[in-house]
Fold this sequence. Notes:
- The complex is a heterodimer.
- Helix content of chain A is 61%, strand content 6%.
- By secondary structure, chain A is mostly helical.
- Chain A has a three-stranded antiparallel β-sheet with strand order 1-3-2.
- In chain A, a hairpin with a 5-residue loop joins strand 2 and strand 3.
- Chain B has two domains: 4-218, P-loop containing nucleotide triphosphate hydrolases (Rossmann fold, 3-Layer(aba) Sandwich); 222-309, Alpha-Beta Plaits.
- Helices cover 36% and strands 29% of the residues of chain B.
- Chain B has helices at residues 44-51, 73-79, 95-103, 111-120, 134-146, 164-178, 192-198, 216-222, 259-268, 281-297, 302-309; strands spanning 4-15, 18-24, 27-29, 33-37, 59-64, 67-68, 80-83, 152-156, 184-189, 201-206, 209-215, 224-229, 241-247, 250-255, 272-278.
- In chain B, the strands form three sheets. In chain B, strands 7-8-9-4-10-11 form a six-stranded mixed β-sheet, with helices on both faces. In chain B, strands 1, 2, 3, 5 and 6 form a five-stranded antiparallel β-sheet that branches.
- In chain B, a hairpin with a 2-residue loop joins strand 1 and strand 2 (18-24).
- At the A-B interface, helix 1, helix 2 and helix 3 of A face helix 6, helix 7, helix 8, strand 15 and helix 10 of B.
Amino acid sequence: MLLHINPSSGVPIYLQIExxxxxxxxxxxxxxxxxxxxxxxxxxxxxxxxxTVARAYQNLERDGVLQTVQGGRTYVAENxxxxxxxxxxxxxxxxxxxxxxxxTQLRLDPQEIIxxxxxxxxxxxxxxxxxxxLVRKAR
Amino acid sequence: xxDMAIWSEKLVKVYSQVRAVxxxxxxxxxxxxxxxxxRNGAGKTSTIKILLGLTRPTAGQATVLGFHVGRExxxxxxxxxxxxxxxxxxxxxxxxxxxxFTRGFYPNWSDEAATKYARSFEIPMDRPFSKLSQxxxxxxxxxxxxxxxxxxxxxxxxxxxLDPVGVDEFLRVLAQDVVSEGRTALISSHQLSDVxxxxxxxxxxxxxxxxxxxxxxxxxxxxxxxxxxxxxxxQTKTAEVVSVTSEGxxxxxxxKQNADDFAAELRRQGATVTEVSPLGLREIFLELVRxxxxxxxxxxxxxxxxxxxxx
Lengths: 139, 311
């Protein structure tokens, strides 16, 4: 897993890690059951605080995205969306609101905003299919 | 406070009428990396000297690793490694000889660690200290501190003279060895980008006073730059609004917390909020230090502020 962080951006480092892991999973680059590098390894590779990496992993675990087995190894959870649908919607709501507000302030009309979101969903889906192909070819 | 690596309550240090440290109350948690930030002359080194017993505080009290500063100084020094701001030694000893000399003072000294860091920092171990470059002198001090097996490592401007490769190696060592082994590091620096990368807590001081102390991620999650356009925008600073800059119909706000509520309030008043964006540590630092200047020097302007810092 290749993580990239920008320490001087205003986005907390633990959030940058969470977002990248989620993106890798959403795009199929990481699959359920795949192992993640240890906290210590990620910290050493990126020259960041192990407490920060641990915080990202804990949050992802709490969200059901990752699971840690006995012995300390961390894996992509088999059922990453184990949360209740209502809870999942509640978590997405602030992002949806943000998109609505930003889009409106940039004077895009509603259809353009929705198209943009759909476009992103499509590209995730394409990435997912590409990774699927790779796996099939490898077999 | 026994559970803190460093704790202080209203520390004061007065040097001939200058309050170098002014009622400083610090909380440095164990098992992390604490970035102790401030510009030159802010009081960082004075604070460190008090904590390590190198100078007495004028008032206040402190503990280091649970031991009382002043009363239990030997216990503190046995468990603390210190790299001072001044990284010179009048010595013709080589790094290897310095390591052999230093190990005698520390029961937890590790020859294995010393060898490891000599290799990873690429230190010329058999050249006299006086013939080393500034960067290599700094590396020798880092090696001597890291190999002591101390519970607390205090680095005062650790990057002095180090090239980017040396800094990167130092950050790797902090990330990989120090915290993972449950040790605590305090890094005093004005190199914000290095600290921003590796610290989990930061304390920001200016004029000897603590302006901000919190988990770095929390600071970044809460501070926001808000730009709004409209008539009769609020111009006053509050506990939450750290700075206000206006230009024509536009206003730039730096908000410490609850930025979304503030933006919502602006919208309710009819303003157009054009931007709500996060800030890096450097920008937050500058905003807070600038705020302090306005508070302490009033309308006298930049000159007075600049003079008082150079003391």
